Amino acid sequence: MIRSYIVYPLQFIFLVVLQGVVLNNVQFSSYINPYLYILFILWLPIKTPKWLLLVLAFALGISVDVFSNTLGMHASATLFLAFCRPFVLQLFAPRDGYEPNQKPCIQDFGFAWFVAYAAILTLLHHLFLFYVEVFRFSDFFSTLGRVTASSFFSLVLIVISQLFFYNAEEKR
Amino acid sequence: MRNLIRFINTYSFFFLFLFFEVLAFYLLLSNNHFQQAAFLNATNSVTAGLQKEYSKLTDYLNLREVNQNLSLENERLRSKQQYSFHKLYGPNFLINDTLYQRQYLYSKAKVINNSINKQNNYITLNIGSLNGIQKGMGVLAPNGIAGVVKEVSKHYAAVVSLLHSNAKVSVKLSNSSYFGSMQWDGEDYLEGVLKDIPNHVELHLGDTILSSGYSATFPADIAVATISSFEKIPGENFYKIKVKFLTDFKNLSYVHVVKNIRKTEQKELEEKTEVEYD
């Protein structure tokens, strides 16, 4: 329990700095930009209070916004992600419900479960983010293409980093 | 009343979400309207500091192209120097030249943050109000135009990149001086669109597009782009033209900020005319 008071803030800072300094400068073919920072929201324990989820999402989004000069944009998308998370978790719940202390990660639920869970939430977040950024529906399909491509790369990064930590935990 | 409280209690999660979302959109919209600039400037001195350190690290990666561009620019400037012109008259001939008066001053700046992958891109420069940078000044890249200064703090300047959905540059064709406005359509960072060129003008692929100097932000006759494709649209008076920017925004390291000494004079006169004769 006490460990999580140290781990989560560190994770928060690490992901925000990683996103702001490194990943914002990564582009494939000028359209695609991975957003790894949402991993923080994906990883929070399942029993996290819902209000805390929203507060953390807002703080996370604003921090990323400050780095990319888009005040409010990532915040609104991350809030949407946090809002959707309980419903997606409900959708994927095991037959006898979740146990306390479980985290939505590969160790607890397996590879396929995690990929499906992360894919849906990443796609929702990117949809919201890209359409808010464009702020019009006139280029609907070109934006949709960017959403799909970026979601794919974000998802690959999320799964890779998850596997990375998975192995680290195994060895311990 | 009890029912209302129960209603709010049941849907508290949704209401909290709504509350935060409204807050986020308020920030988003007011930030677009420049009011939030003060807040942004304050926080920027933290993140800009960090980004400056990061750009120190990544500087090495594109030194090659930067050097190439700078030496090309030097070549151009050197060919305009006085010593590269042949003197027609003898050594004792004095020309008191009042034909040429200085209108533009330049200060060099280094790009410490830049993006090309968003719909609204900004550039951060390492000089600010202490270096005499003001809002509304133009920013020139080694080839062509980079953007216009939007906000300045003491040590940094935030520039609206040409890759911004609201950025427009007044330009003209090199061979016929018809003028139009150049914008970015938000797709490829190498390409933009040129509007308001009438149908009857003869165009060729690869024609150079120059800055017009009408806006008093940039000097006239700087090459900014070349025509990469054009078509006539039936029933419309203007061409649909795609242009290729000469500036490679992905590889922007050193830029020059332009100060137009006579900008206020020109703007005041124009505004006065509009007020009096409208």
Q: What Rg of chain B, in angstroms, do the CA atoms define?
A: 24 Å
Distance between the termini of chain B: 58 Å
Share of residues in strands of chain B: 25-35%
| Class from secondary-structure proportions of chain A | mainly alpha
Q: Estimate nothing, just give the exact number of structural domains of chain A.
A: 1
Largest beta-sheet characterization of chain A: none
Mean pLDDT of chain B: 82
What characteristic shape of chain B results from the CA principal axes? globular
Strand order of the main beta sheet of chain B, please?
1-2-5-4-3-12
CATH architecture of the domain at 168-246 in chain B: Beta Barrel
Greatest chain-chain contact = A-B, 39 and 40 residues
The first-level CATH class of chain A is given as: Mainly Alpha
CATH hierarchy class name of the domain at 168-246 in chain B: Mainly Beta
In the CATH hierarchy, the third-tier topology of the domain at 168-246 in chain B is known as Thrombin, subunit H
Molecular structure report:
- The complex is a heterodimer of chains A (172) and B (278).
- Helices cover 72% and strands 0% of the residues of chain A.
- Chain A has 172 residues and is mainly alpha-helical.
- In chain A, helix 1 runs parallel beside helix 3 and helix 3 packs antiparallel against helix 4.
- Chain A is built from seven helices and no strands.
- Among the domains of chain B are: 31 residues; 79 residues, Thrombin, subunit H, CATH 2.40.10.350.
- In chain B, 31% of the residues lie in helices and 29% in strands.
- In chain B, a hairpin with a 7-residue loop joins strand 7 and strand 8.
- The longest helix of chain B has 22 residues.
- The model of chain B has no long low-confidence stretch (mean pLDDT 82).
- At the A-B interface, helix 1, helix 3, helix 4 and helix 6 of A face helix 2 and helix 3 of B.
